[in-house]
Amino acid sequence: MKKLVGIVLVILMIQVMAGCANKDMQEQNSGNISNTQESVKESGEGQNPVKDNDSHIYMDDIRFIEPKQSLFAGKVREICCGADRKLLIRADKLYLYDASEGIVVAEDSLDEYQDVQMFAYESGYVVIGNPGQDGSGGFVDSTSEMKCICKLYNSHLEQKKEIVLSDLLSNDVIVSLNSIDVSSDGNKIIFATLSNVYLYQTGNKKCKKLLSINKNAAYKDLWISDIEYMAFVSGDKQIAFVGNSIPLDGGDSIPSYGMFDVTGKNLVILGDGSYSVDEMLMGNGFMYLPAVFNKADGTLLKYNFAGGEESSISFRNVKEGKDGVYTSFNGTYLATALLDGKLVLNIYDKKGVHLKEYVVDGLNAAYFYRIPQITLCEDSRVCIVVLGNNQMDIDTKIICFEF
C-alpha cells in the first residue's frame, strides 16, 4: 500500500514540474514575439506588425505573406493589388498570388508584350499591352506595329474579353497606355489617340468618337492639344484627363487637366501653367495631380469632383514628390518616395496626415538608381516595394511592410 502511495506522489511531482516547465516555455516564446516586433519597428503612428522569418505580416489577425521571386518565372516587373489580399504579379507570365496563403492560385501568358499597364477594376483585372520597346514608360514606340490590346479578367484571372483597340482605328494612333481606362463594370473603354478620344462599348462592340483633339475641343480661352492620362470618374459618368492645352490666340502649350461627360459634352479645362501637372492618380470622388519631378516642392494638388474644388496636401519634406507619388486603389492612402543612396518612403492618409516613414538601405547602390514600383493595399494596409524591376543586371527585390 505504502509503495502504491509513493508511486502516486512521484507521478504528481512529475506533472507539477512539467507544468512549470511549460509555463517557462510560454513566457520565453512570448518574449521572442516581442523581440520580433521590436526588430521591425519604423517611425510613425500606428501599430507595428509581427513579422517572422518566412516574411509573414500579422495585423489584427490578418496574415499577409510577402511574395517571393522564386515563385515566378522570370523577373518580377510589376505588382497590382486586388481584393481579398490577392496580387496580380507580372513576370514572364501573369500570376494571381494569394497573400493570405503565400501561393500562386492562377496564371496566364503575357504573349510578347513589352510595355504593360495593369490595374484592378470592380470585377477583376485589366491588362493593357503593346509590342513596343521595353521601358518606354507606357508610350507606344513609333517603330512598333502600333498594336494596343486590352484584356479583361475576372477575379480568378480567367480572361473574359480581349479587344485590339488599335484595330478599331483608321489613320490614327494610340500614343500612351496611360490614356486608356475601363469603366468599373467593364462595359466601357475610353482611349485617346493623337487626334481624338474614343468610347468603346464591350457589349455591342461599337466604337464612338467623343472628342476631337483640336480647336473644337475648347473651353474659355484654351483648347486641348494632347491627352496623356484619362480615367472614368463620378460613377463612370465623367472622364478626367491630364494633358496639354494651347491658348486660342496662340502661344506655348501649358500643362492642364480637366473633365468632360461620357457623352463628350461639357468639357472643362483647368490649369494656367503655374502648376506643372505630370500625371493623374485617382481616388474615390477626387484625383491627385503630382507635379513634374523638377517642379516638385513638397505639395500635391488635389481636385474634388463633387464640389469642383482644388486643394493641396503638404508633405513633410519639400523634396517629396520628385521620385514618385503613389496611391491606393480608392485613394485612401498616399506614398511618396525619395531616392538618395537609399529609399525613404512616407505614407499619408487622404487628408495629408502622416502615418509612417520607412527606410530601405544597405542594398547595392544600383537599387536606388531607378524610381521604385510601389503598391499600397488598402484592405490589409500593406505597402509593397519593388526594386530593380526594370534593371536586368540585378535581381528584383520585393519588400513588404505594414502602415
Task: Tell me about this structure.
This protein has 403 residues and is mainly beta. The chain has one helix at 2-39, and strands at 50-51, 56-59, 62-65, 78-81, 86-90, 93-98, 103-109, 115-121, 124-130, 149-154, 159-164, 180-182, 188-192, 196-201, 206-212, 218-219, 222-233, 238-247, 254-261, 268-270, 281-282, 286-289, 299-304, 309-314, 325-327, 333-339, 343-349, 354-360, 373-377, 382-387, 397-402. Strands 16-17-18-19-20 form a five-stranded antiparallel sheet, with no helix packed on it. A four-stranded antiparallel sheet has the order 4-5-6-7, with no helix packed on it. A four-stranded antiparallel sheet has the order 8-9-10-11, with no helix packed on it. A hairpin with a 2-residue loop joins strand 2 (56-59) and strand 3. The radius of gyration is 26 Å and the shape is globular. The N and C termini lie far apart (66 Å). Mean pLDDT is 84; it is low at 1-54 and 133-145.
Secondary-structure topology with pairs:
Layout: H1 2-39, E1 50-51, E2 56-59, E3 62-65, E4 78-81, E5 86-90, E6 93-98, E7 103-109, E8 115-121, E9 124-130, E10 149-154, E11 159-164, E12 180-182, E13 188-192, E14 196-201, E15 206-212, E16 218-219, E17 222-233, E18 238-247, E19 254-261, E20 268-270, E21 281-282, E22 286-289, E23 299-304, E24 309-314, E25 325-327, E26 333-339, E27 343-349, E28 354-360, E29 373-377, E30 382-387, E31 397-402
